[in-house]
Amino acid sequence: MAPQDFFPHLAGWVANLDDVFPGALVKPYFAQFEVGHLLALVVLGGSSILLNLRLIGVGLTDETPGEMHRNLSIWVHIGVIGMIVTGLLIGSSNAERLYASEAFSAKMVGLLAGVILTYGVTLPASRNDGELSGASRVSAVVGLAVFAVAICVFLSAKLANPGLWHVIFAAGLIVAYATRALTRIVFLSGAGLMIVAQQVMTHVVFKADDYANIDPTNKGFAWGFVAWILGAAVLHAVSSGRGANGGSFTKAMALAAILVWVMTAAAGRWLAFA
After folding, report:
1. Hey, which end of the chain has fewer CB within 10 Å, N or C?
2. DSSP helix/strand/coil, 185
C-alpha cells in the first residue's frame, strides 16, 4: 500500500523531484526543515489535545470550550499549515523514499482524517461549547471512516506497524486521565494485569527469538488492550451523560480527533523503519 503501488506511472517524476526546485534547495538543509516540521506538529498536537480534552470534560476546565477555541484556534491553523508546508518541502527532497513507503501512505491518509475531524468536528464543537451541528456529525462519520482506512494502511505497513502501539498507549493515557474513582481504579488495574501478562508471555514463556509465538502473542495483546480501552471509554462516555460540553458522541469524537494526530505522528516517525 505504498504510493508507488497506487501511482506507478509517477515513478519518473518522483525520482526527479530532489533535483529541481524546491527539493534541490531543501535537500542540503533537510534537518532544519525536519525540525520545523516537528515544531509544527508539536503546536498542532498541543492545541488539539487541549481543545479535545476540554470537550471530553477534563483538562483546563476553568475555561469554557468556547473560550479555549478563541485562544487556541489560531494555533491549530498555524500547526496544520506549518506541518503541511514543511512536509511538502522535506518530501520533495526525499521523494523516492516516501514513494516506496507504506508508512507514508498511512501518514497521508491519517493527515486527511485529522484535517476532517479537526475542522469538521473539533473547532466547530469547541466554538459552540460542545454542540455538534448536522454538518459536524457528517464530518465526524466521514472522518472516522478515513481514520479507519488509515489504521488499516498502518497495520499493513511492514516493519512500521508496531508504531500503532503509540496510538494504543495514547488512548490508554487519555482514558486513565478522563475516568474517575472506581472506573479509573478498575481500568488501571486491568491494564496493569495485561501488561504483566504480556511481559511474562513474551519474556518468560517464550524465548526472545521465538517469533513464531511472540508475534501472534503481541498481536493478541494489542487487540486485547484496544478492547479494554474502548470499553472503558464507552463506559465513561455513557455514565458521564450529557454535560455542559456535549454528550457521549462529542466525547467520542474528541478522543478520535486526538488519536488521529497521534497516529499521523507515529507513522511519520516510523518511516525510517519501513
Report:
1. N
2. helix
**Could you give the C-alpha distances from 215 to 45, 101, 186, 226, 244, in angstroms and in order?**
31, 22, 28, 17, 45
Q: pLDDT-derived band of residue 197, with 50, 70 and 90 as boundaries?
A: very high
Whether the CA torsion 40, 113, 110, 229 is positive or negative: it is: positive
pLDDT in tens, 235-267: 888 887 665 566 889 999 999 999 999 999 999
Residue-number span of the structural domain to which 251 is assigned: 3-273
CA distance 71 to 51: 10
What confidence tens digit (pLDDT) does each residue in 93-106 have?
989 889 999 999 99
**Is residue 160 within 8 Å of 154, Cβ to Cβ?**
yes
Total domain count, the chain = 1
Contact 159, 273 (CB under 8 A): yes
